[in-house]
């Protein structure tokens, strides 16, 4: 079920007001606990300590959507997924640590090209997540994304800085394919979206996170998966996301195939 315009005001208007009030940190704002419920942290772990790898997006209580390159050279038993984290230095009581049953990278993912192609993957959680809120839905129609859009993560807050302990978010503008081509002087990938380029946006450590956007019908949907960028939120250099709608057939088929195996 899509979120209605009422949710857009509840979510988007609150963030817009926060943006006017908060002190900016490298173009971002500190998120309150529970403010970005769909975002998870994908981490390598030895089960005594862990190291953040990428962000991911909850699409259900047991599936996470992320960038395929985040899982290169990894094994499920080396990973866990953390939900409900706002500040890595605090135990806020909302955190859930989920093991990874398995993950699947898109069959046409090409890691040796620059940029990546079909940079999409799904992670199956074990056990399933206890979820106490709604999630923005995946796009169910080709209605174009119009924005505004929001992205979030624990990535670096400036070029060369370490990752942030606090979850940060920012509003970003969508760019046309023509603008994206001009920014990188290259043909635009038809399976990708560009957003940002205003000096605020994704940085090192934010890869794999989701881009939530308003679509042409006025609904908030999960529109993109953060794949790559040049530099750290550089003006004129937008972040590039895999367009989730372009991969819906694969996402649905993969999840349904898993359900049949369970039966």
TrEMBL record:
Gene Ontology terms describing biological process: proteolysis
Signal sequence segment: 1-16
SUPFAM superfamilies found in the cross-reference section: Trypsin-like serine proteases
GO cellular component, one term: extracellular space
Superkingdom in the source lineage: Eukaryota
Pfam family, one: Trypsin
Domain Peptidase S1: 25-256
Classification via InterPro entries: Peptidase_S1_PA, Peptidase_S1_PA_chymotrypsin, Peptidase_S1A, Serine_Proteases_S1, Trypsin_dom, TRYPSIN_HIS
GO molecular function: serine-type endopeptidase activity
Name of the protein this chain belongs to: Plasminogen activator sPA
Naturally occurring in which organism (per UniProt): Penaeus vannamei
Organism lineage string: Eukaryota, Metazoa, Ecdysozoa, Arthropoda, Crustacea
């Amino acid at each position: 079920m899509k979120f209605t315009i009422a949710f857009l005001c509840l979510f988007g208007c609150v963030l817009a007001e926060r943006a006017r009030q908060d002190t900016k940190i490298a173009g971002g704002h500190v998120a309150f606990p529970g403010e970005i419920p769909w975002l998870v942290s994908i981490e390598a772990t030895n089960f005594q300590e862990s190291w953040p790898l990428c962000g991911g997006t909850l699409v259900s209580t047991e599936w996470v959507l992320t960038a395929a390159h985040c899982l290169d050279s990894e094994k499920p038993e080396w990973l866990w997924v953390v939900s409900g984290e706002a500040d890595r230095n605090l135990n806020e009581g909302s955190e859930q640590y989920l093991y990874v049953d398995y993950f699947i990278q898109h069959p046409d993912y090409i890691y040796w090209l620059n940029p990546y192609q079909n940079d999409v993957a799904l992670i199956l959680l074990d056990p399933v997540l206890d979820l106490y809120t709604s999630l923005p839905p995946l796009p169910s129609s080709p209605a174009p994304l119009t924005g505004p859009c929001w992205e979030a993560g624990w990535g670096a807050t400036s070029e060369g800085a370490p990752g942030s302990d606090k979850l940060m978010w920012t509003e970003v503008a969508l760019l046309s394919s023509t603008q994206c081509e001009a920014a990188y002087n290259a043909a635009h990938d038809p399976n990708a979206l560009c957003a940002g380029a205003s000096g605020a946006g994704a940085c090192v450590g934010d890869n794999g996170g989701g881009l939530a956007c308003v679509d042409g019908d006025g609904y908030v949907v999960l529109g993109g998966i953060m794949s790559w960028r040049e530099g750290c939120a550089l003006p004129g250099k937008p972040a590039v996301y895999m367009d989730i709608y372009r991969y819906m057939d694969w996402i649905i088929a993969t999840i349904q195939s898993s359900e049949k195996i369970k039966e």
